[in-house]
Amino acid sequence: MSGRQSFLNQAAPENYVAGLGRGATGFTTRSDLGPARSGPSEDQIKDALAKRAAQLGAAPPTAYGATEKKEENDEDDDRFQDPENEVGLFANGAYDRDDDEADRIYQEVDEKMEKRRKHRSIWFIIFPGLNEQITDLNPFSSSREAREAEDRRRHEAENPKIQQQFADLKRSLASVSDEDWANLPEVGDLTGKNRRTKQNLRQRFYAVPDSVIAGARDSTQFDTNVQDDGAPNGSGADNADGTLTNFADIGAARDKVLQVRLDQAAQGSGTDSTVGTATNIDPKGYLTSLSKSEISSGQAEVGDINRVRALLESVIKTNPKHAPGWIAAARLEEVAGKMGKARQLLTQGIEMCPNSEDIFLEAIRMSREQIHNAKVIAADAIKRNPNSVRLWEAAMELESDPASKKRVVRKALDIMPKSVALWKLAVNLEASEADARLLLARATEEIPLSEDLWLALARLETPENAQKVLNKARQALPKNHKIWIQAARLQEQLGINDRVAMLMKRAVQSLARESAMLKREEWIAEAEQCEEEGAVLTCGAIIRETLGYGLDEDDDRKEIFIEDAKASIAKGRYETARAILATSLRIFVTSKKTWSQAADLERNYGTQDSERTVLQKAVEAVPQAEGLWLRLARLSGDLNDARRVLALAFNQNPNSENIYLQAIALESSHHEIAKARELLATARQDAGTDRVWIKSVAFERVQQNLTAALDLVTQALQLYPKAPKLWMQKGQIYESLSKLPQAREAYATGTRACPSSIPLWLLASRLEERIGVVVKARSVLDRARLACPKNPQLWTESVRVERRANNLAQAKVLMAKALQECPTSGLLWSESIWHLEPRTHRKPRSLEAIKKVDNDPILFVTVARVFWGERRLEKAASWFEKAILLDADLGDTWGWYVRFLNQHGTSEKRGDVVGKCVLSEPRHGEVWAAVAKEPGNAEKGVEDILGIVVGMLES
Question: What are the Polar residues biased-composition ranges (predicted)?
């Protein structure tokens, strides 16, 4: 047996590289080299060379390390070594005989040339003139050694070594102390910093391509039409590959996407589902969900129908007892226009599923055009399923005359006398009330536990018989609350109002005894239902008896009742809300909040008389409620009546600031100037608050008595130097007197005394801008932002200053900083959208703003204006109404809405909005507040101010 190993177990040849033929390169690892070891030393190399020369019978060559001492001036630097001298990499190479012979020949030549050079040097020393003669004849025959030394010296002078260049600095390092060495700074990570900077610079942000938007629009569409090569209109562009890009469709898709997103954002956070992502599947009836439709080009293709047909055939073959499969197959043929095959499939399905109501109903529906066949199918269906109410109803609908319908229903009642649905059908078919009454009497005997039949019979009976019917119903259904409510409504209908409350009290006791009481929320819903049907007394009785059911005294019942009233008001059930508040006031007689809520209800949805009645009861119950006294005084019919109310209020609340100011406003509105001024003087003595002084100054300004107003504000500032409104009034008085330097000083002093007053900073900035010193206005706003950081009004004013100075670039820079500091400000977003964005970018920016800002009326108004500009009038009106619902106290919103209605609304709608604005009495808003606080508009009402605001708003 051979001891030779197999091919795969043999050692690889020397210098073998795997895969070299296919372009692989070899490499070695530590395992290939083995443990590290040092190579042969220089002495070992010399010994080896000498031994080899001895074997050859020659002297050791000096080129391979023979002992020959080099002269000191022959120290060549490594840079001047002969490149052909075999050192370094080839020093330890393996030499053969040819190499040795060549080396020996070169060595002999070098030695011979060296001897000739030395011999010539001796003659030059003996005969010095010979050197000059030879040099004259041959200038290149100078000494080789001198020439090489000169070249070396010149090269070292021109290219000094690094150690020579820094020799002086290295010598100076000897004087550096240890402390200086310790204080040397650390080297920063400049490489990582530069790398991160470059990565940040390489980042790019791209907008979503139009093709993506168009694809999202068409993703759910199924279109099989073949389009022509040409463009359908002039809104396309040919691409390089022959396709067509319709820019009009892309723009429409973008607008549609933005509109949907705006609608989703406007719905608030109450919805959790995402539009377009919900999937509702009926696992039982999905096969029967095919609707009847006409086949058309673009809706389906023959191939699609064939694929669905094959699928449904597999379904009915796999499970022939499954009726929905047969129905789906028949509907598919109906869609394809093959009615004969559809009826044939239903016939087969009836044979396979004779007890299925659905398949019989489907067969009846498809055979309605042939009424005789439909009746035959109905008769067969009833024969096989005699207890199916739906089949009896279908059979009744096939009859044309009422008598036949009655005959079918009565046959059904003979088979199923306990079916409530059939009794209702029979009653509805009767033309006379007497016959219907007889049928209902029979029905209640057959089905005494049906509340609907009892209630229907009670409605048809006379009041006396209705009471008897309801008494029988209560005995049959002691746990049914609807019977009790119907009995109470019957008493209200008869005009016996006292028995309504008594019946509801008995109802609550009886239901509680039977453990059949509803929850209080369900009782409120029943009361709202009674109000909707006109039973107001029954509604009130239900609320009185059940409002506090299930609530303990530890619960915050007052707040719960107020929330219930608000919920009913939101549904438009004002009588229910009145009953809730009245019941709450019986428990919490001294609740100011509840009385105020009741008065608000009457003011918004009642009459002035009803509001006055509520307020009179309120001030009797809570005489210390100043607000209720003031509201009652405003409702007084004449001046004397109002004075009497205020006198009573003052007796209950002596030295009250609010009552003083209301009395002053009353006298001023009736042009009793002297009386008002006298009351103001008394108020400053008895209740000398800063608000009284402010009203005094405002009163004199309205009367155009600026000198007296300036004197009053000066006195007030000595008492209240921290009141910002006084400083504002002082500056405005100086502006009215055209004393701008004094006004500037007043504002400057005021901002130092009240640095947190935003209106004071704004007045100071606008004064500088009005004078023409825009730089000073910027400086004022910069100081204001330092004193009041993260304030949207100050940032908005800074942007407007730059915009009014036609410096849009700086305005955009400031707006970017402002949105970083105040990202949820609707005022800033509105300013950016409407004044710093082009028209085409306003809607996308509006969507971005709505995502970041939660329910801001100013932003809603801006979105409405965007839709208004696009002639989307219904959307604009809805956004205006949303803004009003968010904050009815914002007067600018009412102004924009009325301006919109002036152009695109009706006179009735405009009048309705103006009336609601008058009831709301808005007090805030940039333009509204400026108009309302103007001294010349002090005596104007809400409607007059609204008209001025509409004229002042920007287009």
Answer: 218-227
**Contact present, 784 and 747 (Cβ < 8 Å):** no
Q: Which of 469, 438, 471 is nearest to 454 (CA)?
A: 469
* The token pair that represents 619 in the structure block: 């001030």
| 3-class DSSP assignment, residue 92 | coil
Return the sign of the alpha-carbon dihedral for residues 591, 593, 594, 595: positive
Q: How far is CA 610 from the centre of its chain?
A: 44
Count: domains in the chain: 2
| pLDDT above 90: percentage of residues in the chain | 24
Let me know: does 750 contact 731? Beta carbons within 8 Å: yes
pLDDT value, residue 252: 65
Beta bridge partners of 238: 244
| Predicted TM-score of the model (pTM) | 0.56
Q: Write out pLDDT tens, residues 95-120.
A: 567 777 888 888 888 888 888 777 66
If you search the block for the tokens 């719905």, which residue do you land on?
267
Alpha helices in 687-771 (DSSP H): 690-702, 706-719, 724-736, 740-753, 758-771
Task: Residue 940: count other Cβ atoms within 10 Å of its Cβ.
Answer: 15
CB atoms within 10 A of CB 663: 25
How far is the CA of 695 from the CAs of 94, 179, 653, 718, 890, in angstroms?
116, 74, 20, 16, 23
- Cα 470 to chain centroid distance, Å, stands at 55
Tokens (6 digits) for 707: 């000198």
Give the CATH number of the domain where residue 350 resides. 1.25.40.10
Name 555's Cβ contacts closer than 8 Å, sequence gap at least 6. none
Q: Other C-beta atoms within 10 Å of 334: how many?
A: 23
Of 299-308, 667-676, 905-914, which range is least confident?
299-308
Domain boundary at 430, 445, 461, which? 430
**C-beta separation of 289 from 308 below 8 A:** no
Q: What are the tokens at 377? A: 């199918």
Specify which residues 924 forms β-bridges with: 890
What's residue 729's pLDDT? 92
Measured in residues, the chain has a length of 955
Give the C-alpha separation, 77 to 66, whole Å.
Answer: 20
3-class secondary structure, 858: helix
Quote the CA–CA distance of 692 and 681 in Å, as a whole number: 9
Range name among 62-66, 328-332, 534-538 with the lowest pLDDT average: 62-66
Q: Which residue from 477, 455, 481 is spatially nearest to 466, judged by alpha carbons?
A: 455
3-state secondary structure (DSSP) of residue 762: helix
Q: For residue 630, which of 649, 611, 604, 657 has the smallest C-alpha distance?
A: 649
Q: Which helix (H) or strand (E) holds 541?
A: helix 536-546
Token digits of residue 128:
């010095």
> Is residue 404 domain-resident?
yes
Is the CB of residue 643 less than 8 Å from the CB of residue 666? yes
Q: Is position 400 within any domain?
A: yes
Q: Parallel, antiparallel, or unpaired for β 244-246 and 236-238?
A: antiparallel
Contacts of 132 (CB under 8 A, 6+ apart): none
Task: Write down which residue in 430, 452, 480 finishes a domain.
Answer: 430
Residue 399 lies in a domain: yes
Beta bridge partners of 72: none
Helices (H), ranges, 606-723: 608-621, 626-634, 639-652, 657-669, 673-686, 690-702, 706-719
Domain that holds residue 347: 301-430
Task: Quick: pLDDT tens for 747-799.
Answer: 999 999 999 999 999 999 999 999 989 999 999 999 999 999 999 999 999 99
At 725 the pLDDT is: 93
Q: What pLDDT does 794 receive?
A: 94
Other CB atoms within a 10 A radius of the CB of residue 667 amount to 22
Grouping H, G, I as helix, E, B as strand and the rest as coil, residue 518 is: coil
Q: Which residue has the tokens 């900077």?
A: 197
Q: Would residue 112 count as lying in a domain?
A: yes
SS3 (DSSP) at 246: strand
